[in-house]
Each structure stands twice: as structure tokens, then as C-alpha cells.
Amino acid sequence: MNLTLMGATGGLGRAFARQACAAGHNVTALVRDPARMDFSHENLRLARADVADPGELAGFIEGRDAVVSALGHRGKGPATVGRRAAAATTEAMKRTGVERLVVVSAAGMVTGADDGPLTRLVAKPLLQRILREHFADLAAMEETVRASGLAWTIVRPPQLLDKPYTGRYRTAVGRNLRGGMRIGRADAAHCMLECVEKGEPLRASVQPAY
């Protein structure tokens, strides 16, 4: 498959790029600073791009089989990258006729009946207050993606850990995963790649966790 990847220099994006290239996919990674990409591969191409500019994105999306976004707010300043990139990406995809979109969000922003009492009543409300700007950006991103009409999947991992790939994780589609508090970046990236390769779950969210 020919893939366009945004957020490739973050921990989750790098893990996805490594696994996708190793699986034989061609990955065009859109980055602000190529020097931050710490690995190379014959299937990996780095390109500078403004992820908030649909016209610029269209040139890197046209002809691809899928677009993957591992973007997330990092550092100081307003948390707006998710909503701005989602608006530009979905517009660029509509212009170019590319349908498949996989984006990363966060399990912590969603509270549901499948959460345990401690998680539902204490842990997540506290996390949502601390990360309210970040989660507001992700919520706006998700809304744009869901309204796009594209063949989308939203991946919502919980707390991400720097752990090697295990392949031993659970998933829940369209709901929270009870007891799913953590997952390694490599395993979360594996879940993302499976969503791309299998084309499912379609127009649904999925939470991977241990």
C-alpha cells in the first residue's frame, strides 16, 4: 500500500512508520523537521508540508491508498493542531478522491458505561480537567473526521508507554475497554496498521489496550 503519514516524528508516528515500512508499504511521512526522524528505510520518503494547508497536502495525498494521522499537541502554545489538520486533511482527501483515513485520538477524553467506577468517577474526570485544551482539540478533530463522509477509523489508545511490541493487547470497537489503562506505542502502532490493512473498523472508533 502507498500511505501518507502525518505526525511521523512523534513516538507513535515513528513506531507506525517502522512497522509499515517493514511490512512492505510505501510511506510518505510529512514532517516539519526531517532531522527529527531517527530512522531511514527504502520504503520511507520524508517531505516537508504544512498539515493545515489542504492545497499543499493534496499533492502528497493524491494516488495514495490511505492517510494516517498520529498528530498530537506537543509543547507550549494553543492546542489546535488536531482540528486544523483534520479540516485540511479531509478537504485534501475529498479533492483527490482518497477515501481511507485512520487518525489517533485518546481514550482518556471519553467516559462511558464500560469504564469501571474508579475510572469513570475519579481518574478520567481528573485527567479531563488537566488536559482540557488538548482533549477539546481532539474532540473537534473527531467531529470533523466523523462528518467528512470518508472511510475513517478513530484509534483511541490510553496512556502510551515506551515498551517493545508484544502483539498481546485487547481491542474494543465503539466503546471503552474496561480496565484498558495503558498500551505500548509499538502495540498501538500495530493496531493502527491493522486498521489500515484490513480497512476496519469502518466509521467507528477502536481502543487498543493491555
Automatic annotation (TrEMBL):
Residues 7-197 form the NAD(P)-binding domain. InterPro entries: NAD(P)-bd_dom, NAD(P)-bd_dom_sf, Polyketide_Oxido-like. GO terms for molecular function: biliverdin reductase [NAD(P)H] activity; riboflavin reductase (NADPH) activity. This is NADH-flavin reductase. It comes from Streptomonospora alba.
